[in-house]
Amino acid sequence: MSENGFVKTDVKDKIATVTFFHPKSNSLPGDLLTKLADEFKSLKDRDDVNVIILKSEGDKAFCAGASFDELLAIEDFETGKKFFMGFANVINAMKKCPQFIVARVHGKIVGGGVGLTASSDYVFAHESASVKLSELALGIGPFVVGPAVERKVGTASFTAMSIDYDWRDSSWAKEKGLYTDVFSSVEQLDASLNEIAVKLSNSSPEAMKKLKEIFWEGTDNWDSLLEERAEISGRLVLSDFTKNYIQQFKKK
Prior knowledge:
alpha/beta, single chain, two-stranded parallel ribbon, 2-enoyl-CoA Hydratase, Chain A, domain 1
């Protein structure tokens, strides 16, 4: 496996499987975010794809969110905005895919990983898949992923997640609507995932496209909204607070 991580897509029987990996707990540096956005954009108009599965490699974290190494290296606003636009571009690319996106969340998710999960249309998770929005601890906030997360769990739950940045278990995530279903074994998870993927692969693409448009009503302004949010994060990430926090975290 590459030390820099990878994004790959396999298409079979009208099911596209998008897989990402990074050796540091499936964190997401800018180049992987760009590749993810590009993959979803390329799948958008493919007639041989009726459903998309989003998954990550490994058996630990599904996604640890933003790459701390890259956050620490940001030294100016433009670089900061560009990095956080990576998450904005992935979320908007997922939103604009006419195909349903089914996420396979096999482990914990943090920060930007919560945004990817919330941007999926249907989510199967393992019972170990706890969830946390940790951005405030870094001196920033879940600004870019916020609209996607709030859309799924509601304003009250998003507010609580953002303020106390505690871990919440998979049962909580299912109760609040972030997860569609939770499984006690990976085998059960994969069996159910395969079943829904096959079902959707044989469903009407036009009907699913129209349904997805309805599911995402009210998000037409997200191109500009998420860019504005990326600008907020791009400024805050330059603070001494954020630099000091990440340096101390990396020493643990």
